[in-house]
UniProtKB/TrEMBL annotation:
Name of the protein described by the UniProt record: MFS transporter
Statement: the UniProt record of this protein carries the keyword Glycoprotein: no
Keywords, sorted A to Z: Membrane, Transmembrane, Transmembrane helix
Major facilitator superfamily (MFS) profile domain span: 200-386
A Pfam family hit: MFS_1
Transmembrane keyword on record: yes
Length: 386
């Protein structure tokens, strides 16, 4: 439990850095002569780097985890470099050097992947199998809390000098990351009597899992970042969006601990499949909501569905990779999430979401994507091990 809470704190500050970065990126880019229209392309570059580096760090973490203590030290070293690059962004921007600014952005993007797959590799490699859902749920909880406060935080940061938030976020993340070495030792100590691993997983099960993850991740991106605001604007004023957007993440956070308990009882794979269907139904209900109150309930249920799904997806990835590929499968899942975000940004950059044809497609895409993900998972159940 202590290690799970620690991972939640790490993921909270990690996600907080991303919130600060996105909030100030237009301002910092303008200082180095990058037009506002190009900011979306920088964010797309970030996601493309995440697609590649998350998987690469996952594979590297599998190799490092073979020697006790090596992975923790690797994560600390890379994260310190990441924090230094992050802290340098608001310090370099006033100089007006666009090339140097972009180099720091790329360096930060690459090195930040050290805090996605590798910590979960430690959990999957050393924690006892019954503890996996709880530890994953607590880790994901940190991300959920950070996303819930992101709209409020963004509002408060508008008039604040960027050097302060960048300093606080980077220092806080660097300090908490030091504890990962101790967390690794604790997991190794308590996992000494870890139960024998089950039989190797068949490749079709892994393919089915990743296919379902792609469908679910795209559905999440479309619903949360393209559809939710227009849905709220049917009943609320634009200035209320910052207070309504966290409803999804409130549902997400409330679902995580029950999701861990349920996954421990019936299996993460089954929870993931059922959660996909729940999210699909809630998304459909949100589109049909006759009032703001009904929409809020539907959004909360959609967030709960995504919470159940994301938590069980990472637990499933660790279970599928139990033969020494925990990092590889966890990194692949993180890459899928980044790829879905990249796709959503590409739609925004191209302005396709403004056309009537695409709007009609987006209206039902989340429900269809989540239901399709559930169907794929149920189909692949015969080859599951989670």
């Amino acid at each position: 439990m202590t290690v799970g809470v620690y991972l939640a704190v790490v993921q909270f500050f990690f996600a907080l850095c991303w919130t600060v970065y996105v909030a100030y990126l237009p301002q910092l880019a303008a200082q180095v002569g990058i037009p506002k229209s190009a900011v979306i392309w920088i964010l797309m570059l970030d996601q493309l780097i995440f697609v590649l580096s998350d998987y690469a760090f996952g594979v590297a973490s599998d190799r490092a985890a073979k020697v006790v203590g090596r992975l923790g030290r690797l994560v600390v070293a890379v994260t310190l470099l990441s924090c230094a690059a992050f802290l340098a962004l608001p310090l370099v921007a006033p100089s007006g050097s666009a090339p140097l600014f972009l180099v720091l952005v790329v360096l930060w993007s690459i090195t930040s992947s050290a805090l996605r797959a590798p910590p979960l590799t430690l959990v999957g490699r050393h924690a006892a199998r019954p503890q996996l859902p709880w530890l994953v749920a607590l880790s994901v909880f940190g991300l959920g809390v950070a996303n819930a406060i992101a709209p409020y935080l963004t509002l408060q940061l508008r008039e604040v000098d960027p050097r302060g938030p960048f300093l606080l976020a980077s220092v806080a993340l660097a300090l908490v990351t030091w504890g990962i070495v101790a967390a690794e030792r604790k997991l190794v100590h308590h996992g000494a009597a870890k139960a024998a691993s089950p039989a190797p997983v068949e490749l079709p099960a892994i393919r089915g899992f990743l296919a379902a993850a792609v469908l679910a991740a795209v559905a999440f991106q479309v619903h949360s970042f393209l559809n939710s605001a227009p849905l709220y604007l049917r009943f609320a004023a634009p200035d209320q969006l910052a207070w309504l957007a966290p409803v999804f993440w409130v549902g997400f956070n409330l679902a995580l601990l029950p999701a861990g308990a349920l996954a421990k009882r019936v299996g993460a794979w089954r929870v993931m499949a059922a959660a996909a269907l729940l999210a699909g139904f809630a998304t459909w209900a949100a589109g049909q909501a006759p009032s703001l109150n009904a929409l809020i309930v539907a959004q909360g249920l959609a967030g709960a569905g995504w919470g159940f799904l994301l938590m069980s997806a990472f637990a499933t990835a660790l279970a599928l990779g139990h033969t020494g590929r925990e990092g590889q499968l966890g990194g692949a899942l993180s890459s899928v999430l980044a790829l879905a975000a990249l796709s959503r940004m590409a739609v925004l950059a191209g302005g396709w979401h403004k056309t009537p044809e695409v709007q009609a497609l987006l209206a039902w895409a989340p429900a269809a994507g989540w239901v399709a993900a559930g169907a794929v998972l149920w189909w692949a159940t015969r080859r599951r091990v989670a």
